[in-house]
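Input sequence (251 aa), recorded before submission:
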Amino acid sequence: MIKSENIKDKTKDEIMIENLRDIKEIFDKHNIKFWLDWGTLLGAIRDGKIMEYDDDIDIGMMKDDFKKIYSILPEINKKGFFIDTSLIFIPKFCFLRWDYGIDIWPYSKLGKNTFSTHGSAPLKSRIARVLRFIYNLFMHQKTNTNLVISSNKFELIIAFFIKCVFSIFPYKLKKSFAEMSQKILMKNYIRLVKVIVPKYYFERFRNFEFYNITFNVPFNADGYLKYKYGEDWKTPRRKWDWVKEDKSVRH
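Predicted structure, token format:
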């Protein structure tokens, strides 16, 4: 685990992979099977690394494995992860450490030939962005020791300002602000979607070396990525609206 005093010396990729390595060790210990998914899989297969503009890790698993996570949440928390189970991330978990998260996508059967999972995303509006930022800032900082890591200068300035203003307040008060932001988001600014994947993409998996760690990936990863991201999936794109452009998303 990366120590707090060394965090500034680490790159984004180093932090994200350290987070993933620690979660993998826990999951392997408890026989929780998972695979690289979404943008993490895309970066691994296409680029051999985390995509430059990706700021979280995505992993998929079947519903039965997902259920096992509930019994090991204290162990994950002891590793320094904030465990976000809020409605904003229905129905997945988000394990967050040093402001880089690992999103868990649980899949279940949908009919005979498909698997499905659900996701949510804030609508494109300044209010939604501010509310989500307030939620993240307060809920992801259980103490006053961590300042949000962000490449966005505006967010860094706001984070610093809010941290200074609210540094004297107890965590419970900060949490109440976060919960208020969450309620407003869920009522007015959150879009819920269903993700549908043909069954055959998740019937077989293979080993794949990623940052010298062996992970599972769909056996036909190229076909799966083509299904999700289209014919030009091998062409990097900095701007991507997964709710509108991912071919597996249904509204």
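Checked by second reader. The CA atoms of residues 7 and 15 lie 8 Å apart.
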